[in-house]
From TrEMBL:
The chain crosses the membrane at residues 30-52, 159-179, 199-220, 376-397, 417-444. This is PepSY domain-containing protein. Coiled coil: none annotated. The keyword Membrane applies. Keywords: Membrane, Transmembrane, Transmembrane helix. PANTHER family: IRON-REGULATED INNER MEMBRANE PROTEIN-RELATED, PEPSY DOMAIN-CONTAINING PROTEIN. Residues 82-132 form the PepSY domain. InterPro entries: PepSY, PepSY-ass_TM.
Length: 458
């Protein structure tokens, strides 16, 4: 009799423990969703659009970016295109961007006194100026700044790191809540009709199951752009030897100007500094000029669509850089402005192991690594994230008590929160901002619990 009672007691304790753990996980899944889902929807929509940036920009800005291919006509000299751009927009030419294909225009970046930097588009076949936009002023650059939250200032970028960490927590807790535990429905199929809460619960759970891996991948590969973690890891990974791996940089003088200051660059080269040109010992040293510099760059075999930053000052260099979809074709070349000699010629293969791994993740994150298939798969994942998030909102609205936030019930045993503490510790070590946000949320939750307890006693 005693053994049977003891067995029942153990079974009851195990059941209560499982229920408490489920409630604790459900509670924090709710909190994660409350904080992250609005960001996920925004990131999914802007990210899904940005996957097709070249295609969309080519349509929206067709009058500037596309030209008629002149049969048998040779392109005019780059210096002639720069001169035409400066006649249309007076200022200082700072960059020339090579046409990506025979039907594309050339882009000349001009620094002006009143309007800042402008991108001037030129027909490479006749040198005619097609028009201009603010530098990085295309519709897809606007989408990109919205996606990265740069549009809202530097401080807002820290939210990317927090949202990424909470998104991973959301997937982990969601997987635990989805686990079948003998259930027959709502695992990989939908039950009920849209008027029923169970339909939205199943739609949220099943969609989340299939898209969860993509959310984790996109969260992790998006971390290099975060304000705190990404910046610190970048400094640690690429901060030595002026940002270049040992053995790549030749023994030449280096300046204090970073490559990132000349235009868009890869994550791995954000800390890289420019080498310095050395003027010959003559009374009036003459730079080689843009036409000769481009001839050298093309002889070196850079991928079409490269950008050539023009020298700034007497020690400046010509910097040719290209970051095409194929990672193996990424390349940065610095030329001495007087001799045309390559001072540094670096490709993706020269990055360190961490740099190569993160660049591969970033390239895939942006829909580039595997071409059109990469774009389509991630676009479908973005659509699924929006569906999952909307389903979560509808499910919550149908479940919540009137006039209440509808926070899931507390576990009977507070020890069920030990897992949350463990996550807090791990998150705090790996991603400091995520750990700090988890700690703040834990304090708020404890305060909420105590407030509710006092109001119940009263």
């Amino acid at each position: 009799m005693t053994d049977v009672s003891l067995g029942r007691t153990k079974d009851g304790a195990a059941a209560r423990s499982a229920t408490d753990l489920y409630r604790a996980v459900w509670r924090w899944h709710f909190y994660a969703g409350l904080l992250v889902l609005p960001f996920l929807v925004s990131l999914a929509i802007t990210g899904g659009l940005y996957l097709f940036r070249d295609e969309i920009d080519a349509i929206v800005h067709a009058d500037l970016k596309r030209v008629e291919i002149a049969e048998g006509a040779a392109p005019v000299a780059p210096s002639a295109m720069v001169a035409a751009a400066l006649r249309a927009v007076p200022g200082t030419a700072v960059k020339y961007t090579d046409p990506t294909d025979p039907g594309a225009s050339a882009e000349i970046t001009v620094a002006t006194a009143e309007k800042g930097k402008l991108a001037v588009y030129v027909d490479p076949y006749d040198g005619k100026v097609l028009g201009s936009l603010p530098d990085r002023g295309t519709v897809m650059w606007t989408i990109r700044t919205l996606h990265s939250l740069k549009y809202f200032g530097t401080t807002a970028r820290t939210l990317i790191e927090i949202a990424g960490g909470w998104a991973i927590l959301l997937v982990g807790t969601g997987l635990y809540l989805w686990w079948p535990r003998g259930k027959g429905g709502g695992v990989v199929t939908l039950r009920g009709a849209p008027r029923n809460r169970i339909f939205w619960r199943d739609l949220h759970a099943v969609t989340g199951l299939f898209v969860g891996g993509f959310i984790v991948f996109l969260a992790v590969t998006g971390m290099p752009w975060s304000g705190v973690w990404g910046g610190k890891v970048n400094e640690w990974a690429n901060g030595s030897n002026f940002g270049y791996p040992s053995g790549v940089r030749t023994d030449v003088p280096m300046s204090d100007v970073k490559l990132a200051e000349t235009g868009q660059t890869t994550w791995s080269l954000e800390q890289a500094k420019l080498p310095a040109s050395t003027a010959p010992a003559t009374a009036d040293p003459t730079p080689i000029g843009i036409d000769r510099a481009i001839a050298v760059v093309e002889k070196l075999g850079l991928h079409r669509g490269y950008a050539l930053a023009l020298p700034a000052g007497a020690t400046g260099v010509y910097t040719a850089s290209v970051y095409p979809d194929d990672l193996s074709q990424q390349r940065v070349v610095h030329l001495d402005q007087y001799s045309g000699k390559p001072l540094l010629d670096m490709s993706y293969a020269d990055y360190g192991p961490l740099g190569r791994a993160l660049e591969w993740g970033i390239n895939t994150h942006m829909g580039q690594e595997f071409g059109l298939l990469n774009q389509i798969v991630l676009a479908l994942a973005c659509l699924a994230i929006v569906v999952m998030s909307v389903a979560a909102g509808v499910m919550w609205w149908k479940r919540r008590p009137k006039g209440s936030l509808g926070v899931p019930p507390l576990p009977a045993d507070a020890r069920a929160f030990r897992g949350v503490i463990a996550i807090l510790i791990v998150g705090g070590i790996v991603f400091p901002l995520v750990g700090l946000s988890l700690l703040v949320m834990l304090v708020l939750d404890v305060g909420f619990i105590r407030t509710m307890a006092r109001s119940t006693v009263g």
